[in-house]
Structure formats: C-alpha cells, structure tokens
C-alpha cells in the first residue's frame, strides 16, 4: 500500500506542476430554465480557450472550449441545448395559447355555438391563463375568423385551421408529458361534447389536435371515447 500512496503523491505533485486552464469569454446572455436550480434564471453564454499551465501559469494553447451556458445563480455550466427548453413564463404562455387555439377551432367546427359549448370553452381558456375570457369574446372571435377566411361553420378542418393548430401545438408538444398532451385533447373533446355528440367536423379538428400533440390515432380514439363516457 505504501508504494501506491507514493505513486499517488507523485501524480498529485505532477498535476500541480502541469495542468490545463480555461479562460471563458461572455458572448451573450438572457433568461433560461436552469436544470440545476429548477427554475427561471439569468444566464451567460460563454466560449472558452484552453491552455496548458506550468506551475499555474498558462503557457501553451490547447484549443477551444464550449460554447456553454453558465447559470448566474448556481454557476453551473450546461450545453447550449438547454436553451431549447422554454422558461416557466414562456411555457405558461405557450400552454395558454394552445388551449385558446384548440377552443376556437372546436367552436368553429361546430354547426352551432350554444351557451353550453361557449361556457365550456370559456372555462377551459380561463383555467389556462386567460382569466378575463368571456363567452361573448370567444363567440366574437369565431365570427371574426369566419368572416376573415370565408369559413362556413361545421365544415371540415381546412388547411388554414390545421396550420394554426400546428403552429400553436407543435412547439409545445415536446415539452409536455403524455398526460399533459392528453389533457389538451380532452379539453377540446369536452367543448365539442358540451352541446351534443361529436360532429364529423369536430372529430376532424380533434384528430388534427391529436396529431399535432404527437398522439397516436389509437390514443386519440381512446380519449375521444373516454370524454364521452359518463364517469
């Protein structure tokens, strides 16, 4: 055991003589969701240059390091892919907009917009974050959309509506666990069922919602059936 301790001691002394050091340079900043802190934090984006050191002094270049993201709070470094995750504030806004878009799409697909369906839609949108949303506002928005696009109520999900759904749901889906994605579809299903059984146009809209949320066709059918089954 004594020789091993001697070898470790020599290795430690050698490491103190020769080593590497990275000099970091800030190249940007912003706010991100820090995986280390578990919340929104400020960050600096850094690039670095590594150098060999002799007795702690830099002597020879060893190449570039990074880029990395440094949390201003915990000072930990992460890969730049961490910036792909939305901040808590951004995620809440994406979720709110997604529910609002789904509600409008389902209402537009219905043959009629009854007080029951508008009430269900307004409740879902308020719960998602638009706390001042009213049935009258939703009805006016659906009317305005129809007037702007020449849409006929009760028609199948056309290209324009499908694009709007994908624009709202595609960026959100990767950041939602399966129960979260299913919840958005179920909210749309309950709005459709508020005034009676699904129409063909409502089913088509909900199928588009499911596809944008990366749910399988079988899962979409299962959820639509579950939404219409009394608990």
TrEMBL record:
<dbReference type="InterPro" id="IPR007791">
    <property type="entry name" value="DjlA_N"/>
</dbReference>
<dbReference type="Pfam" id="PF05099">
    <property type="entry name" value="TerB"/>
</dbReference>
<protein>
    <submittedName>
        <fullName>TerB family tellurite resistance protein</fullName>
    </submittedName>
</protein>
<dbReference type="InterPro" id="IPR029024">
    <property type="entry name" value="TerB-like"/>
</dbReference>
<feature type="domain" description="Co-chaperone DjlA N-terminal">
    <location>
        <begin position="129"/>
        <end position="223"/>
    </location>
</feature>
